Amino acid sequence: MSTIMKWDGHTHTKFCYHGSDAPSEQYVDRAIELGFTRYTISEHPPLPAGWIQDPKLMRELAMPSEELPLYIAHAQSIKRRYEGRIDIAVGLELDYLQGALPFTEAIVAQYEKQLEDVVYSVHYLPGKDGVMYCVDYTADDFAANLLSYYGSMEKVVDEYYNHVEAAIAFAAKLPMRKRIGHINLIEKFSLKLPPIDEAQIRSRLTAILPLLKQGGVGIDVNTAGLRVPSCGKPYVPEWFMQACAEEGVQLVYGSDAHRPDHVGTGWDWFEAQLKRV
Questions:
Q1: Structural contact between residues 45 and 76, judged by C-beta atoms closer than 8 angstroms
Q2: How many CB atoms lie within 10 A of CB 98?
Q3: 239: buried, middle or exposed (CB in 10 Å: 19+, 13-18, 0-12)?
Q4: Which of 10, 54, 226, 258 could serve as a FRET partner for 61 with CA atoms 20 to 30 Å apart?
């Protein structure tokens, strides 16, 4: 197959309040040291007010609205600073927000000309008391507020993939490069929660494949799950990578770096998989 571009397509910055306050230069310098030739900065944008009920958690999830223009300017400055050394792509990790799509549409409309890359992720599901909860906060929170609400892992997983399908439909309309973030994030706590039926995952991902192809939406081959003790594997199954490659769905490695030393983690696994497809 052709040469694999060494591209980290999912990374964070000091504007992420559940990550590191390390300067972006430390992340990018690490990427250059490891031989990457493209690096996407993809921070979480603001969320609608009160999206999550817990005020402390809400503050940690995303930057306040007044910081978004500062972040875009920051990413553009890093792009200019490293021109000729590494291709920096200015991006965002947008969230699929059920019932609040106009909020995301407004961000896209405002920054469409600046955004080169969008990672579009499902982090939230409706749960207990009819409010939104993170699927990736803690295993205890998942059990108390999602598993108890849906009644079984099968039902939670189905609702998660329903959201992923809706996310693909939205992402298909975006004019810039776009891909679905960590498509199997629902497995983050798989070693602490009741087991998820592998046949269910295979069935839902198989049905999702043509939607990705038709929409021109790629996949963030997110290796962060390798760093999570309750998961221990990437958030994209190897068989699904093979299927995506066969259908021409773009596969982009993503470290999901929240600290400089996360950059490049899992790249060897990703490269080995691509060499097999």
A1: no
A2: 16
A3: exposed
A4: 226
Bridge partners (DSSP) of residue 117 are: 91, 177
DSSP code for 59: H
Q: How many residues does the chain have?
A: 277
Where do we find the tokens 């290796």?
223
Give the pairing of strands 38-43 and 7-8: parallel
Q: What is the pLDDT of residue 2?
A: 54
How far is the C-alpha of 254 from the C-alpha of 8, rounded, in Å? 5
CB 177 within 8 A of CB 118: yes
Per DSSP (E only), the strands in the chain are 7-8, 38-43, 87-95, 117-121, 124-126, 132-134, 177-180, 218-222, 251-254
pLDDT tens digits, one per residue of 106-117: 999 999 999 999
pTM metric for this prediction: 0.97
